[in-house]
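ASSEMBLY PREDICTION REQUEST
Request ID: AP-0331
Submitted by: J.K., bench scientist
Number of chains: two
Total residues: 515
Priority: normal
Notes: Please return the full assembly, not individual chains.
Input sequences:
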Amino acid sequence: MQPVATTFFFYFLSAVTVISGLLVITRRNAVHSALALILALIGQAGLYLMLYAPFVAGVQIILYAGGIMVLFLFVIMLVSIEQSLKEEQFSKLWVVGLVSALALGGLFVAVYLKGKGIFPERVMIPPETSNTQEIANYLYGNYMFAFEIASLLLLVAIIGAVVMAKKRI
Amino acid sequence: MNVQTYIIVSLVKIVLTIFILLTAVAYSVWLERKVVGHMQNRWGPTRVGPFGLLQPLADGLKFIFKEDLTPPHVYKPLYIAAPMLAVVFALTSISVIPIGNAITVGKFSTPLQITDVNIGLLVVLGITSLGVYGVALAGWSSNSKYSLLGGLRASAQMVSYEISLGLSLIGVLILSGSLSLREIVLAQQGTYFGFIPRWFFFQGQCFAFFVYLTSAYAETNRIPFDLPEAETELVAGYHTEYSSMKFAMFFMAEYANMITVACLATILFFGGWLGPMFGPAWLQQTVLPVLYFIAKVFVFIFVYIWVRGTLPRFRYDQLMAFGWKYLLPLAIANLVITALIVALRS
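STATUS: Completed
Returned structure:
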């Protein structure tokens, strides 16, 4: 079946992602920020789906929205809300942040206006039925070394966390 | 199939699925009360209807007409949203689960599931992993220490056991080579020696099945892992402050999750709707598969209740130690061995 109303879904999901992204940094209550971040991650997963990457979308939801954010929420729930509401929300570095955000935005606009030739004309869409298999082939075939490096890094992080958390090993 | 028929067919299937699922939820509660009653030498519900069969209806009416109490100290928006989240995620995860062959009427054909996606298993895992938010937010927004502790326990427990749950399924994925639940079932066709079915349980995934079932019990917060609502320590855990229909939503979510877990166990390890076939074509194509599926799911629901009637509750440190020190290594060992065997065979 042909996809329907793709434009609508694209703008809808983008709006969800951008608005909840803004809410993450503007809410005072940390639990609300975390919830907005979950919504942003789910919107992003929807965008992945629209790019014909169902595996990435599923992993995004399982790992980020369902795993990492639960741990975030877990920690935030133990923080006293009354105290954190009184504290200052933004650090003094907001001028630097604004400048770098503007610079990055300018870069995006410049690339959008001038850089038509940078991107390929047509995007290759892998067949929907074998998308996951394609990813496996790339991960364990062409990019095996990079993949293993990443997993080694994660292993180091895990061991480091255990060493730091335990007083006596 | 054009878009209109697709939408109409999907809507019909959604309504039917939710109706069947909620009925199944109501009657698994009845079954649980009846079976546990008999295990404890009691009768269970007997008053409402023959064998107490109308008891779920009476319970539902009672839940609707009870006073819906909102304590003054709760954080209201999330307090109201939490049970809804729990029940929505519990009902959504059933949408990709196939319960039989495709139905064909003339030229028109539709699969017996709301939607047939090729990453079905990932969808189920993703939605169930989001289900923890209902419980965690209920605990936080109730603004009471029992609820908060219950919510914290639930989130810690679900995150820990999700890992062994996911790893235990990878052996099945290696053998079937697909994430689509329909193809996983179809990969289990045939028999050994003519009578042992080639279900993944009999293809050497029995340890994986043990890990899956145990972590699934922990995921659905059932005895012996019902620490989040341990009434001896936490009053009622995360739903202490909930009453009336809001409490019923958590209850419904728990039982709907049980049914989803039972469906997944059937599909992944016990051949889904496959079974001995006989009789005319319509019987073989449509009726028997659905009957086999329901029978297998029923067995798992019964085992759930049986375990509940038999085992005492774990202590919290035992729960965590069991999950991380026994189930996780077992799941990883199963994964490595399965991968090795498959690699050597090919």
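REVIEWER COMMENTS: The radius of gyration of chain B is 21 Å.
SIGN-OFF: pending second reviewer
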